[in-house]
Design a protein that fits this description.
The structure holds 2 protein chains of 2 kinds. By secondary structure, chain A is α+β, with helices and mostly antiparallel strands. Helices cover 42% and strands 18% of the residues of chain A. Chain A contains 6 helices and 3 strands. Chain B has a 7-stranded mixed beta sheet, sandwiched between helices. The chains are: A alpha+beta, B alpha/beta.
């Protein structure tokens, strides 16, 4: 199918880092079933480094590929780098996504941020709340409904 | 295993007989049927003969067949014509159903902007409407009832004859979008009291870009395309003779083999339904008896349809889904929502539509491939984990 780049199809067919981390240091879940995609990111953080990352995704091909690529991009990186990951970087690494699938990359960025936020909360680490998406007012699903 | 095509409700492979019959009309008999010379008149003969053959298969007069570009154009023209007739009499109410094809629904939406009142009948969980619903919805100002013969996504067959009877009794024009039915089930416009019927050739092994509208004598049509006297002034443009010839041949072939094909297809369909039903937390969409012999539609809880389709394609299986992600639109199928499937479930839908070329071996392979892919996707689905761990309740028991 020409809908997706070869990179997207590769990450969709052979997703990296699928699974669950037991006793993860941070867990982030975004999206909802009504919209047709949910992403859940599990982080293992050691000395400020993303020592391990796993994901579970309910969603279309680009949602699975975006999750896979995003986890690859942050694995082994400092938390600060993971926090700086943008959806644009995920899209570029995937050699592009169709316009109506860009929200999948946004979900990947937000799921990682949420997992890091969870890590900060669990460990009582001070952080700047404005850096994180507010899921109560997330535009993802309202954009879907338009 | 080579490619297994299970998307025949989207389009079918062309009949070899139809292709063979079409070729001369792209080659030596290339005339314009409106021309007076012999080359043109040979094309005109083919046009007349094809119209006669199609009319015979529908049980109507050849003068009641109008050639169009396909199902969508036929639906548009039928509805707009009935609306024009209604408007003249001050009747601006139309009855239809919530799960029609968009060619019907969008045309009705357009009419709504022009002051028409539209009643869309709700559909049962089995994907059926009743003649009582239609009867109760008809008002003194109703100018049209439009109910599809068989649904394109879930394959359910509506009680067309009974609806036709009611409409005839009440003097309301009855249109049916029979795009999925013609060539697959016996259609008889006389017996079923149908006033207008839309059909499309590429759903029964004819070519794309050609269809027809049956219109009962005495019902004036409004033309959508102006510019010539073709089709008795109701559809301008030089007729697509090769496609029309192919449509007539394909319909004849489909009707001649219908009994044999239905028997084979019903067996394959039921094999597929039985096989997929063994997948836990899955549900068949649409009534299992009152459905096309070609249609299988399922929802699987905890997964999303597009990823299912892509992985099946990797295994050589061509299928379709009502998931939002597959349609380019943002909501899951209006048909699945109309039969009461919630969004979460509708996203996990799979439609497999058969042709007589499919084999038992292909069906067995498909069942095992779907089982494998569903299990794999559930394995990476956070929803599935929550369902299995009891954090969420299963919607499909």
């Amino acid at each position: 199918m020409a809908l997706y780049s070869e990179k997207v199809m590769d990450h969709f067919r052979n997703p990296r880092n699928v699974g669950v981390i037991e006793n993860a240091d941070g867990i982030g879940e975004v999206g909802n079933a009504k919209c047709g995609d949910i992403m859940k990111i599990y982080l293992k953080i050691e000395d400020g480094i993303i020592a391990d990352v796993k994901f579970e995704t309910f969603g279309c091909g680009s949602a699975i590929a975006s999750s896979s690529m995003a986890t690859e991009l942050i694995k082994g990186e400092p938390v600060s780098e993971a926090l700086a990951l943008t959806n644009k970087a995920v899209v570029e690494a995937l050699d592009g996504l169709p316009a109506h699938k860009l929200h999948c990359s946004v979900l990947a960025e937000e799921a990682i941020k949420k997992a890091i936020q969870d890590y900060y909360e669990k460990n009582g680490i001070e952080y700047d709340k404005t850096q994180f998406p507010n899921c109560e007012n997330c535009s993802h699903c309202s954009a879907h409904a338009e | 295993m080579a490619q297994i095509y299970l998307d025949n409700a989207a389009t079918t492979k062309m009949s070899k007989t139809a292709i063979k019959a079409m070729l001369p009309y792209m080659d030596e008999i290339y005339g314009n049927p409106s021309s007076l010379h012999s080359v043109g008149q040979k094309a005109a003969e083919a046009l007349t003969e094809s119209r006669r053959r199609i009319a015979k298969r529908l049980g109507c007069d050849e003068k009641e067949i109008l050639f169009t570009s396909g199902g969508s154009e036929s639906d548009n023209q039928a509805i707009l014509s009935a609306a024009t007739i209604g408007e003249r009499k001050g009747k601006k109410h139309i009855v239809s159903t919530a799960f029609e094809h968009h060619a019907v629904l969008h045309t009705l939406q357009k009419l709504k902007k022009h002051g028409f009142e539209i009643t869309l009948l709700p559909v049962s969980e089995d994907g059926l409407i009743t003649e009582q619903q239609v009867e109760n919805a008809i008002r003194p100002d109703t100018c049209l009832v439009s109910v599809m013969y068989a649904n394109n996504e879930i394959g359910t067959i509506q009680p067309i004859e009974k609806i036709g009877e009611i409409c005839r009794k009440k003097g309301v024009i009855f249109h049916t979008d029979a795009v999925q039915a013609v060539g697959h089930v016996r259609v008889d416009v006389q017996r079923e009291h149908i006033d207008m019927l839309s059909l499309s050739a590429h759903k029964f092994h004819g070519s794309k870009g050609i269809g027809a509208l049956y219109v009962r004598k005495g019902i004036p049509l409004t033309s959508l395309i102006e510019g010539g006297a073709q089709e008795r002034g109701k559809r301008a443009g030089t007729e697509n003779i090769p496609a029309i010839v192919g449509m007539a041949v394909a319909l004849d072939e489909a009707c001649e083999n219908m009994e044999k094909n239905t028997k084979k297809l019903t067996k394959l369909r039921n094999m597929l339904i039985d096989g997929l039903s063994t997948i836990p937390h899955s549900v068949l969409n649409g009534d299992c008896e009152k459905r096309l012999p070609t249609n299988v539609s399922f929802c699987f809880e905890g997964i999303e349809g597009e990823s299912l389709l892509l992985l099946l394609d990797d295994k050589g299986i061509c299928a379709s889904s009502g998931s939002a992600c597959t349609s380019g639109s943002l909501d899951p199928s209006h048909v699945l929502l109309a039969i009461g499937r919630v969004h979460d479930i509708a996203h996990g839908s799979l439609r497999l539509t058969l042709s007589e070329e499919n084999t038992e071996e292909e069906i067995k392979y498909t069942v095992s491939a779907v089982k494998e892919v569903v299990a794999y996707l559930r394995g990476m689905s956070p929803i599935w984990r929550d369902l299995v761990n009891g954090k969420k309740e299963f919607i499909i028991k």
